[in-house]
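Both lines are given unchanged directly below:

***
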Amino acid sequence: MPPIADITIDPSLRTRLQQGHPWVYRNHLIGAERLHSGQWVRARCGGLTVYGLYDAHSPIALRIYSRNGPPDQAWIRERVWEAWELRASLRDNGQTTAYRWIYGEGDNLPGIVVDRYGDYAVIQTYAESVQTIVPTVTAALRAVDPQIRGVVQR
């Protein structure tokens, strides 16, 4: 993982962030002007520290992924595994071969959705910054379910 940049979040958001809100809008960031899309950042808001991906072009300038340290490949793989386990009843009921495997913020992977259609996974991103983790998510999908015949990005 490349070096993590440090920025500050407006202190008025502390309570919202402590409650788990996954986004920070551009006007609440201090010191982000030098950053580029897809860069991992450590953002401080009072005594709270969060880690996320910065987006230079979206009103949602920071998508928060972790509050416990910078996400790495193992962390992302664990989120993919947790989403896989959470959807076991859909996957194993024999009534469908299509379902949403990863549902962005709901699975702690903001800005990314993965749908499963038979033996294929389809990745869709909702922010330029999220492109940074698409290769890692793709590898995690294949590691969690070796039955996948293909992963495509929409």
Q: What stands out?
A: The helical segments are 14-18, 73-86, 88-92, 134-144. The chain has two domains: 5-66, 73-153. The domain at 5-66 is CATH 2.30.130.10 (Archaeosine Trna-guanine Transglycosylase; Chain: A, domain 4). The CA atoms of residues 43 and 49 lie 6 Å apart.
